[in-house]
């Protein structure tokens, strides 16, 4: 389950992750969320045509999760799950909100930022928000002291070749005020990185939490002159190289300020690659399908965490884990209080400590569309239910920013897959393991009673209300 690659020579038992003594300096937390970065988009997972030395070194200097899942395979829902520790459909989220949405994250839900702010942390969000663009739903209403970024995806603007002039001008927001429209997207990665570094320098003397949500490598791709034309994989590789540079800049800043021993750095992605964009899309690394699907290419993403002196170096966690688990892990690491409302995440702090026997998460639910339970996973087994869904297979990919074909309503028959032997989900072994099917069906039935399932017309008892503007 948890494989030790490099032996850590010092014992780690004397480190106390749970800060019961209020006189102890609380750790800083930096959470970096990539957009549409696939499982195969970093060098350690097989990326070709460019190198990602900073991603790879981060994994080497801490822990790399090989079985890590985004909350859902689409932008808004994924972010709702990340920041609240809840399956997004429990909170009423699905899909990706645009400029017409009159909904957003309910103020009764507690985010990582709110929990840490209550403990005296300075908090900031830079980059893409996408949990409601109206004033009542912006980051400053959800525990962030500062916000500098865009309210939704950067393809939601007038210049998108597919939906030209459907969207209004893309706003760049500081705090709650639009300071610019249609900003230069080639500067996104650099600007949001520099804002993050500036915040770290300004808040270095007290605990801080930074949420850096890079808009890239989501289309439309854009890169600064520093990396334009530098890769052998074209613009996508250039963009990945600049994102890698961003990680390096943050780690270098922490080292210079002598904050690296008191900072937990987490890097992951919101979902898998948008495959029908062809050479402007990433790689699922051999996993099936991509963004917008409940197959592993859509939701299994890279995740790495480092905390010098606290997380042993060179660990690979093959334990099942998810972005839902980041909130409770941060809570336990900082000594903060858990949300008052029920969440779905579990702390993986024992795994970070190097506990090879820890197995905090054993199952995971794959929801998509409004509230379709499309699959469940238990340990290495995954049961996919018959469902209509997206498939990229059988279509020519797009090129240079224009999408290729995709079928949004393909009928999947479902099946049982042994992800240990068949991570590509190609060999249905349902007839060979009826006892496994029965066990996973029980997990599914419990989920349907709890959160519901549109595929079986189950309402669910514990779904909560999404935030709505006051009329």
UniProtKB/TrEMBL annotation:
<protein>
    <submittedName>
        <fullName>Arylsulfatase</fullName>
    </submittedName>
</protein>
<dbReference type="GO" id="GO:0004065">
    <property type="term" value="F:arylsulfatase activity"/>
</dbReference>
<dbReference type="Pfam" id="PF00884">
    <property type="entry name" value="Sulfatase"/>
</dbReference>
<feature type="region of interest" description="Disordered">
    <location>
        <begin position="451"/>
        <end position="471"/>
    </location>
</feature>
<dbReference type="InterPro" id="IPR000917">
    <property type="entry name" value="Sulfatase_N"/>
</dbReference>
<keyword id="KW-0378">Hydrolase</keyword>
<dbReference type="InterPro" id="IPR017850">
    <property type="entry name" value="Alkaline_phosphatase_core_sf"/>
</dbReference>
<dbReference type="InterPro" id="IPR050738">
    <property type="entry name" value="Sulfatase"/>
</dbReference>
<dbReference type="Pfam" id="PF14707">
    <property type="entry name" value="Sulfatase_C"/>
</dbReference>
<comment type="similarity">
    <text>Belongs to the sulfatase family.</text>
</comment>
<feature type="domain" description="Sulfatase N-terminal">
    <location>
        <begin position="27"/>
        <end position="335"/>
    </location>
</feature>
